[in-house]
Amino acid sequence: MAARVGVVIFPGTNCEHDAILALERLGASADLVWHGDTSVDGYDALVLPGGFAHGDYLRPGAIARFSPVMEAVGRFADSGGPVVGICNGFQVLCEVGLLPGALQKNRGLRFLCATVTVRVETEDSVLTAGVPAGTELRIPINHFEGNFTCDADTLATLRTEDRVVLRYVDNPNGSVDDIAGVCNQARNVVGLMPHPERASDPLLGSVDGNALLGALLASADSPVGAPVS
Q1: What pTM value is reported for the model?
Q2: Which of 3.40.50.880, 3.40.50.410, 3.40.50.720, 3.40.50.11540 would CATH assign to domain 4-220?
Q3: Which residue in the list 15, 54, 87, 121 is annotated as catalytic?
Q4: Which of 2, 84, 108, 179 is the 20 to 30 A CA-CA neighbour of 170?
Q5: Cα atoms in the 13 Å half-sphere on the side-chain side of 6
Q6: Can 195 be counted among the known catalytic residues?
Q7: Is 17 a catalytic residue?
Q8: 7-33 pLDDT, tens digit each
């Protein structure tokens, strides 16, 4: 049976249909989940896509964190369900406390829209299961506040626990330790700034994002911690 993925949207989200199309190309069934919903029952995985949730007022994700759906997302994550936040979705996951750290304005205060190379740092996450560490992927970024930051103790924990999922080969935005994506301690919640859904078709210039989205769908079919074939 095809994995069923809920794509959570907020006012200002703008990458939801890109995510759905990319997931459906890989054989998933994907639906939109409104920010006012209070249940995510029936889904095998959740994706928080990019955009500008609530116009990014205050700071990115700061208002979205209070949406009713985020309590349901939290329960889903606590139960071991795979959750991935892409770009603005990453910011929301950090704001709600499902991931450590924060995203601040890019180095040089410039909006960045480019294809970058990221390196898979760990195979042990729902987004990289089956993708060997060291694999380099060409995936677009599209953000103004994608500069990942955290305190020294948090960074040490991320390194010690192997929770840096992706690193930039050539850091475009000033992120500490070249971090492009991280996971939670249980490894079932992942946030990343690059957009894998925008590297999912040859017409887009790259299909490298399918390695990550395919891993997510495989993880949705397997219990957390179980080997993914």
Answers
A1: 0.94
A2: 3.40.50.880
A3: 87
A4: 84
A5: 25
A6: yes
A7: no
A8: 999 999 999 999 999 999 999 999 999
